[in-house]
Amino acid sequence: MEVKVFDDYVLPNTALEDKQLDANYFQTVPYMEQFNKKHGTHIAGLDGIHFEPMGLYPGKEKGTEPKQGAVIAIPDDVTNSARALKLLETQGWIKLTPGKELNSITKQDIVENPKNVQVKEMQAAMLPRAVNEVDYAVINGNYAMEGGLTTDQAITMEKKDSDAAKQHANIISVRAGDENREDIKTLIEVLKSDDVKKFIEEKYKGAVVSVF
Questions:
Q1: What are the b/e assignments for 125-134, b being 16+ CB within 10 Å?
Q2: Could you give the count of Cα atoms lying within 13 Å of 86 in the half-sphere of its Cβ?
Q3: Terminus-to-terminus CA distance in the chain, angstroms?
Q4: Low-confidence residues of the chain, pLDDT below 70?
Q5: Extents of the domains making up the chain
Q6: Which ranges does the record mark as transmembrane (predicted)?
Q7: What is the third-level CATH fold of 11-52+165-210?
């Protein structure tokens, strides 16, 4: 197996579509579906391998209950903003419009806010550096890890069985029609092995979790 590393979220899919790759492993189902619609590609999603949970991290405030008017920074992109708001609701800090699909939740869906927390949207990559400038921040697992934050510092994390984990696991993707290739089946079998699960647990210590 030859592994190629990309530093953006477009080229892995265009290279797959152009038959420069046989599979890629970096995206979620919602992103893949949106990409296909926007670019006219024919990419199919297979098994989920891992999930990078978001965590609620303390900044200027350290308590597990926010003070009145606490400022909470969250990612500004639609998908991760919705996940962050849902995590705050799970923690009991806010309540959201009931019954909405996860990816459609926005700040306007905050229907109860007893502590009058102020939600401040920022670029996801900036959050680890900005956490000490706000009271709390909800940070993606990969950016938290890059910023030197550990899961034991988080007040709470997205759970392995959460809606976010079900919808936003990183999947193996292939060209439509290649789903039943034997080499693709073997790749998935290896990635879903006990050895890989152990590697994820030991290396990432909760910042990345297997979903198999």
A1: ebbbebbeeb
A2: 23
A3: 22
A4: none
A5: 11-52+165-210, 55-158
A6: none
A7: D-Maltodextrin-Binding Protein; domain 2 (3.40.190)
Contact 168, 51 (CB under 8 A): yes
Q: Which CATH class is domain 55-158?
A: alpha beta
- One-letter amino acid of 187: L
The pLDDT score that the predictor gives to residue 78 is 83
Stated pTM of the model: 0.81
Identical fold, 11-52+165-210 and 55-158: yes
pLDDT at 7 (0 to 100): 86
Q: Which residue has the tokens 């996801």?
A: 124
Can you spell out the DSSP letters for 70-123? Answer: -EEEEE-SHHHHHHHHHHHHHTTS-EE-TT--GGG--GGGEEE-TT--EEEEE-
| Residue 160: per-residue pLDDT | 84
pLDDT at res. 163: 86
Residue type, 21: L
C-beta separation of 169 from 211 below 8 A: yes
What pLDDT, on the 0 to 100 scale, is given for residue 62?
94
Residue appearing with tokens 């350290």: 62
